[in-house]
User: Fold these one by one.
Assistant:
Number 1:
Amino acid sequence: MLSGSLVDVAGNYVEGQVTVLGPDGQFVTTQAVTGGSFDIPVEDGTYKLEFDPASSEFASEYYRDKADLATADVVTVAGAAQTLPAWTIDRRPNVLGVVRTADGRPVPGAYVAVYDAATGTQVASDYANRDGSFRVGTQAASVKVRFSGYDPRTDDLLAAEWFNDKATLETADAVTPTAAGADLGVVSLGAGGSISGTVTTEAGAPIYRAYVCADLGYCDWTNASGQYLIEGVQTGTSEVSFTDPIGEYVGEYWDNVPLSSTTVDPTPVTVAPGQAVSGINAALAVKPATTPNGTDLSGTVRDEIGGAGVGYRVQVLTTPADPRDASVVAETYSNRVGAYHFDGLDRVGGETEFKVRVVGEAGREDGEFARRTIWAGDKLDYATSTTITAAPRTLDFLQPVAGGISGAVTSEAGGVPESPYASFRDVDGDLAGYGELEADGTYESRDVWAGDYTVSFGAYNHVTEWWKDATFDEATKVTVRPGQMATGISAALSKDVKALERPQVEGDAWVGKTLRVDKGRWNTEGGSKFTYEWLAGSTVVATGDSLKVTKAMLGKKLTARVTNDAGFAQGQAVTATTPKIGYKPKLKVKVTAKRIAMTLKAKPLKAKKVKASVVVYEVKGEKADGELKLKKIGKGVVKKGTGVATLKKALGKGKHQLVFRIKGKGKVGSGDLVEKVKIKR
């Protein structure tokens, strides 16, 4: 066995791959190194070792600290295990630092790209750690570094930038990597930039549902006032286009450049990190109207809360034998009053029957609700929808409208927990959606279809709970209605694992009997491991969820301690103390008038050693949880094995079920004994 360890100059373990080569470089074997140590079985012989790092922080090298195979040290293995001295791996020249949001939060997974300052080509990259720290190694003598990432709370794209707060490769500051690490300090990424404006007709009327795009696919639709806001725009210059998918207006580039122009370039829009660029407006010309060549299918799109369905895709599909082979053969948009039409279905080759749908969308603007896809005949899917033929007809659609759920996820420990979530399940238990969390812990979802839901909340290192401060079985349902928000659906999560109902010892504390533990009910159980300990005072006398009571335990009182290990934390709860351990009592009774004569035995005790106090109850029924309903009717004392219980009033004629609660003295055990008696009068 050839063994060794890989460390950096500070003694920290290094991971990568060790390859064993023959003296002339022929491959022998290789092993991935995790945790910094390796054990490689080899035959007797002479070898050279090559290391390839798992991280760009470190350089490849040969054993020991050699640059090539020719100069590498020879390792000899002869008849015994060989353990090499620690192999120190040198870092490449590197750059290091920390990536944070503008308000100081780490950006885990931020992408750090390193470019050769001389050639402008990318030469290395890495992702930031959970705390936002990074270290990227490179052999380039001078580099420029670009940073990008997402806000860890909102998942919004942050504005990419070059070191040091520069917008382009050309203007970025150059950095010289060093073996110790050229420290770039804290790199703060602000919110992405934005471009906004208004789209109108040439007469100045706002155009609803015009589509505005900047470079790299950053787009937005105009609202009812013709306004748009493209967020998350990256730094630099972008070309902005204005189009009308509904087909009523002619598209163009900013500033008033036709989309088809080959002679005039669009005017670029420059965005600095976090900059809000406004006033990028357009006035679109009306598109010349065309005369339909007949109309096979027309109608309107509206929603169930009374609005016109503007700019929704209406699609016509084929009807093959297998619905999975259906394809879209025609598509249009509903216009700005919700109307649509198709004028050529009779010319679709080989098809005479069709299915039609209006494609739903998520909420288009802040505060709007999602619309659901609806099929002909007001059906929810292909299979149940109405089939139409290519003949002139009117077909109207009524789109279902979602409702919403909103609230907040916080921590009992204060503030917003790490990685919070709120999820919704329908009455079948199926996952129906998630809330969109903001940095302050508030959330909302506006794409929840009408119905009843349970809402669960969770976060890293916190106990999951269900609204309203409940476990899964006791969750309160949230009713969602079309176009309405169910508000205040919130939770303050606990980091502590706690028993909601105290564990209990089941069984009688009598010698020879077996006691068991009911673990109780906890705020988290699904993935937990439960363990059990039995204690006499503070001393653990046994483990496990059951205990056989032995004579050695006479006179002791026991408790059971339950530990719930949920992984991220654990909690404990202790049962009530049992009566002191004793021998099992046996009772015989005789009822006369308002007195009950009792004979009590507790083997192996002699009669003169049998003492106890007794409380008598009559069973009056059963509770919802199965427990007996008891009414106290008398009490008494047993001495030397016999005694009398005096009743408050005589028992009436007929059958009675009595419970005698025995509290034993000395070595007599305690517990409830049930006797059935019949009164004849």
Number 2:
Amino acid sequence: MIPAPAPDTRLLDLVDVGILLIDGQNIAFANAAFAQIVGMPADRLQGRSLGELGGEAWIDFTLGQSWADALPWPMPDGSDRWFEVSMKPLECDGRVLQVASCTDVSARMRAEGAEASMLQMLTEIIEGYPVGTFVIDREHQVTHWNRACEVLCGMQASDVVGTDEAWRAFSEVRRPMLADWVMEPDDEADAMHAYEGHLWRSPAAEGAYEAEILLPQLNGLPARWLHVAASPLRDAMGNVIGAIETLIDITSRKEAEAKLREAREKAEDLVTERTRELREAKSALEHDIERRVAIEHEMQRRLIEVTDLNNKLHDTQDRLVQSQQQLVQNEKLASIGQLAAGVAHEINNPIGYVFSNLGSLQSYLADILELIEAYVQAESEIAAEETRTALATLRKKKDLDYVKDDLLDLMRESREGIERVRKIVQDLKDFSHVDASSDWQWTDLHRGLESTLNVVNNEIKYKADVIREYGVLPQVQCLPSQLNQVFMNLLVNAAQAISTEHRGTIRVSSGAEDKEVWIRFADDGCGMPPEVVSRIFDPFFTTKPIGKGTGLGLSLSYGIIQKHHGRIEVESTPGQGTAFRVVLPVEQPDMAPDMVQEAS
């Protein structure tokens, strides 16, 4: 060994590479670059042993030999810095020092560690993945061949892992796999030619490709179609370290597509009687293809996308259930109206002949009273005193004058009562509108309002006074029975909003402007806060106690008014009352003349 002069440490501080002079196991000198890298002042390093500073891995390299390796150096925060260390012996002043040239390779070591960790995680994922998957490294050798790949290709992992012969599972002659092509992006034109145009760039990842190939009969398995996708694998530094390829059997889809093409060709030759059947077969095949394609795509989607689709499905189902319940409610209301109309019809029959009998009875009674009056006038002309006295006594005893007056009053009151019953029955029939067709009609809305007020009179009369403020309304094109249902809901709600502690007022007003008419129902009841007003037309929303309301009345009313191309406006103040304003067009848009009937 040739002795060297004592090093000038001032020059070493100018070098941007970490330099250590090691005497035995102690640091004789550390330059500024090394001190900066390890985050410790140079004077704290000088004179201390490697073991004391945690550099035990460095001690084996301080034996007077030339050496090079990657070694860790502990940092103050507990982590390690990695150095590419090159050591050489140097004789200085009769002693042998070790000169260590240190290059920081921590980033590279971390990248290699991350790569190893990624490969381990990749192994665990691939082995449990239900889709055929294999991985190749930089040298195009197979590193992973999962169980799904064994089943799909009929080749065991032990026969292919560690080799560059993945092609043997897919071809009888050597040919590059799609994973090989993505490792060589400059050969895209050759890849396109090899796959006969059935190759395209994948939008899922940069540098990834997808293709469809017909796998021949190999390894004891029948020929089948595969959808293949390959993507490059990169390390933490972004360098390509391999490629991953997935394989999905799409034979069923291809067969379905072939059947669809065959069905289309046959459809051109079939007669008209078979057209419907062929369309159904075509629809079924297309639906099957769409379902299979959807399943293939769903396997590659994230779990959150599947969850979102499931939530939307539940929302749709809830809306269908609500619609079904509304239809049931409509059917119940129609049945109630039919029943009410039937009862009204049954009552009308006895009322008719009672009313007729009362008319006849009143006529007969007038004749009898006229006859009695004639007898009274003739009483004074009776010759027999005894008879005359007896008749006078009997007339006085029976109070004939009072009976005559009272009989007329009783007949008048009975006739008025029968008239009133008859009017109620007629209003009930008008409300249910059972005698009318379900077609659109030109109708007097005031008549419908009066019929509805009479029907719900028992609900209102004990709680509120009804004040009518009608304007002049033209005939309106509508479905009368449905509008009567809306009027009933609004009137009953108004009555129920009024407290039993005081008698309230319900104002029913109407008017017309432009080509619209409006009817307003205002009460001085409890009113509603804004958060309730915003939800009153929602199905099943109600502020009434359980069992007292279905929450469908206003929802159904809203739907009826929308069907009439109208609108419902609401104003409400807590403690002061609520007003509903129904606005309807006089004439329905786009209504054919033959679809409209005159109201009876």
Number 3:
Amino acid sequence: MTNESKQIYAADILIVDDLPENVEELIHFLEEEGYRCLQGLTDSRQVFDRVSVRRPDLILLDVRMPYLSGIEVLKQLNQLAGALPAIILLTAHLDDSTRYEALRLGARDFLTKPFDQLEVAQRIQNILHLQLLINEQRERAESLEALVRKRTLELSSQSRMEPLTGLPNRSALLEALDFNHKNRDDITIYFIALEGLDEIARVQGFAVADQLVRALVIRLDEMLEVGISSLCQHSLLGIWNSTEWVLICQSVLDAPTRGVLAQKVLEAFEAPFYIDQMRLHLSARVGISFDHQELAPEQLVRMAALALPVRDGQWQEYNDTIDQSLKRRSGMRTALRGALQRGELFLVYQPKVDIKTNRIVGAEALLRWENSIYGKVSPVEFIPLAEASGEILSIGRWVILEALVALKRWRALHQVDDDFSLAVNVSPLQLMQADFAQTLLDMVSDSGVPPCCLELEVTESGLMQDMELALKQLRRLIQYGFKVGIDDFGTGYSSLAYLKTLPISVLKIDRAFIHELQSSIQDQKLTGTVIDMARHFGFSTVAEGVEQSEQLDWLSSMGCDLVQGYMFAPPLKENELLKLIDSGVEHLINKF
């Protein structure tokens, strides 16, 4: 016997007829045929409950019965959920309308009384064979549907998970925030910017960086479980992108608690991580936003991101001033693009005074911007914008050209001495242009101004971006007679190792060391050391920010060469500078 035959003969068959002898006859006949699971009912009212409890594979159903006819039983069975069992109607006579109604209600076949046993056996076998195929197809369909449903859930889960850490990704975070927003839950968001991860990936490799990220997840999970569970009982940590993570706290904490929680997040970065016997460090910045059910999720995250402080290891809460500042920077960045064409940029000059002779021997050209919308904009604001956008390249070229034109004019009119030099600031981006030296040589050659009259002031951080390229460019310029000065010396990467190799001739002592020179022994020692070191290397020194006679006396006693500052003059327009050069600064010194 085949497996299919075994399944057919094991079918659950229910026989429903109001005459007991008909039921017994069919049961006896079917048992002889080999069917083993047979049940008979003579009360049609019991069919619905029987089928509800255990659904048979086949029902042999008499049409004409007291209480409920076969058609009425069919109508009842159609109320059950799921597919009907196979149903064969038993009848001595069936009119066409009843036959059509039976077929409409789901009857599969008809057997006419008195029964032909061979016909009954074959029809039952055919129906059960067909039902077996239908059941197999249904099971396969249900199995496939379950598999698809499972895979869909897996894909949905994966699409909401960051694969390396297993943490919720941006989509999942926004989903959670949207759920909280719809439920009108209070929310506090901590936007965590990781610092140092990219550099570790570049230096140590991505495999090490991946291990480091997993170690960070473990540490932050412990912090959430132990450190802040009392502050925020319901929290969710997720990945916004590779170096920016988000912590959601489902409540608006009071200001002190928000600060405590932020500090605990930062504390998680204080201890080093040990990966493959290496001691690695990460740092972080944290921006905070919070909401009382009003703002959309993405807006909340944006506000927390805007609140990120500039320095590592710090946190800051969002406020309206931050947004206003961002809009101002964005507007200024746009306005700066056409500032040259609109004639909004101009130069002012701060004189440099020789301490020994009290003579103005040079000046520093300083860039200024006055806009119709933003008014007079501080260089502290617009220079970083110009550097970030690349506008500093065209602006820097314009500054050099303007300085050369002014120098040529002053020299031609004998308004300055032949040794008068004008200093211009060179941005890191300018210095990193491969053709900077040649372009500058061409500009100076075209102007007719001797190269020694133009001093280039570069920052320590600018040199460090590409020391090899910076050295190559500056050495070439020095060969042609240019003066090169290090601006704000002592505030960046000061090192004797590079001082002895750099082709520079001037060290500018930052105003931070001059401000309290008359009263700070520490500043006196530092300033004196810089001046002695410069003298040893053959550099001249310029102290900026000189405002008091006591400061001037100290610098003079230390052997500083030049000074500039408000004691003599603020940055001046051209005509004011020329007047001061003509009158001298003796009267200014005597005032103090």
Number 4:
Amino acid sequence: MGGKVSGVAISSILIANRGEIACRIIRTARGLGLRTIAVYSEADRGAPHAIMADEAVMIGPAPVGESYLRPDRIIEAAQATHADAIHPGYGFLSENEAFAEAVDNAGLVFIGPPAKAIYLMGNKAEAKRRMLAAGVPCVPGYEGENQDDLAFAEAAQEIGYPVMVKAAAGGGGRGMRLVQEAGDLAEALSLARSEAANAFGSDELILEKAILRPRHVEIQVFADKHGNFIHLGERDCSVQRRHQKVIEEAPCPVMTPDLRGAMGAAAVEAAKAVDYRGAGTVEFLLDAAGEFYFLEMNTRLQVEHPVTEMVTGLDLVAMQIAVAQGEELPLKQEDVRLDGHAMEARLYAEDPSRDYLPATGHIDLWRPATGDGIRVDAGIASGMEVSPYYDPMLAKIVAWGETRDVARRRLVQALKESVLLGPKTNSAFLVDVLEQDAFARGEATTAFLDEFYGGGFDADEPDGAEVALAAALLLDSERGAAFAAAGYVSRSQLGWSSAPLAPIPLHLMTDHGDFDVGAECLGAVWSITVGDDLYAVALGKRADHAVRARVNGRTVDAVAVITGDGIGLAVSGRRFGFRRGRSGMQGEAAGSSGRVVAPMPGLVIDILVEQGQTVAKGEALAVLEAMKMQHQIAAPMDGVVNSVAAAKGDQLASGDLMIDIGEAAE
């Protein structure tokens, strides 16, 4: 596979990717005794994947178009470091046929399928035509070359609403819009074209009949150059938000042996239809009646491949490398066994309570869970920055169990024990999803999140005991620092006074509310008043950010990181960030303001209003691209646009003014 002859031995691999997938590939490659080369952008200087590899090459500035999406720089790095092969991981250039061909032409081994297979399956329109010819069940749709709005409108009318608009050249939920009625089609086409062009370099679209409430079930396939094709069972990826998978599991909860055989056979036929080689995933929609329809084929390793590895006992990256060297697959279809159940949750840097806005910032602490049946794939470390330039996925928390429920409960515990303090994450949201009765019963479809979280997700608010603990830890730290800087003072005198001391006033600010706290030090115990409630906080043994405390006689185990005038606190599965402020300050009470600011760092894709225009609350004002997704910025109130401070193409920082809206004249 690639430019080298059959049977060539690979001794060194360059990983053309970053983050957790780069780290995961490096682990297997090094376990096989191979030399590894990482590439990194300026934003990833010092990132874990660059440190893990035997060598690392800087390939450009932070934006992906100047670094990870530059085939020339990646191939130059491979040649300069004398790499034999390039593994593309997933995302970036992994499904770019021109890159695969360029690797081949450079005399390097591409650890992936042939460029032609990538092209045939990478274009949804061409892939669907191929699948229909191969007899693979497909969703009714439109894959025509005529890309005019009128052609789409006529096709949608013939197919019948609702329909799904999709980017023909890509996946991952980008360039995809659900259209419920004809009046919404034009806007959906415009947004999908823009997002597709930015994500994939092509604005070609297709239409498909929207199958409501299906399961999203995908089959892992493998093929070698000797004509052997197998599948490794299925993964259920139905829990999705905006077509981005959130939780995956293997096997599918409703799978039967007959259905697995039929879907597996269809997936193998799909792979054969394009003369596939290597690892690939054929995705299907499965309806309640047990009918399934081809959705797309991902010609790469999937994010969720660990759940397949955990139930089959196979290392899919090692198999990719073996196939790329010209070896035969290590097993036949009849040798494939599925043992137990595995679940994976994707830990994202995002705020579920604010419509899942991507989050950035400094990672104050990252401490992944460990234990029986637990696997954590991550590409982050304490002290690094979460950048606005890349996908917001930080880590994958995976659990295996003898049964589905054991795996589910282990995953819940692993999420609670995996502590990330600093940027917002979806950790609490993931736990909430896994603990929903419908999910526990295995009933989740692609409509699950809309049905159970259509009104949003309410973030945890700290209770009085958690506020008291945070205040005690923050004040105790400050007292300890003062003691260390003082002259000789006996530690036994800490908290002692010959006269009564007034309570220390402390104002703690959070994203969920502000708290005025009164604190007194009574020897080894802090007496903390939060509102009308009084808490006695005794801080016990502390080591490596872990603390055991007693709050009103109840033992509490927590993890805390103090940063400047703030503190990050993890208690069980709950995560909070407290900032110290002045007493009487109001937190984030500007909800009714007409100042529209960038909610995160990002690139302005479009400005949809102009000065003097009347707007209604909720109306789209602008489109901001951040972390590979486009976000509509909506008006917070009815009014008139006083000024537009941002322009198309501007790179904004979080909090930068975009648009100012004033009240309309009466």
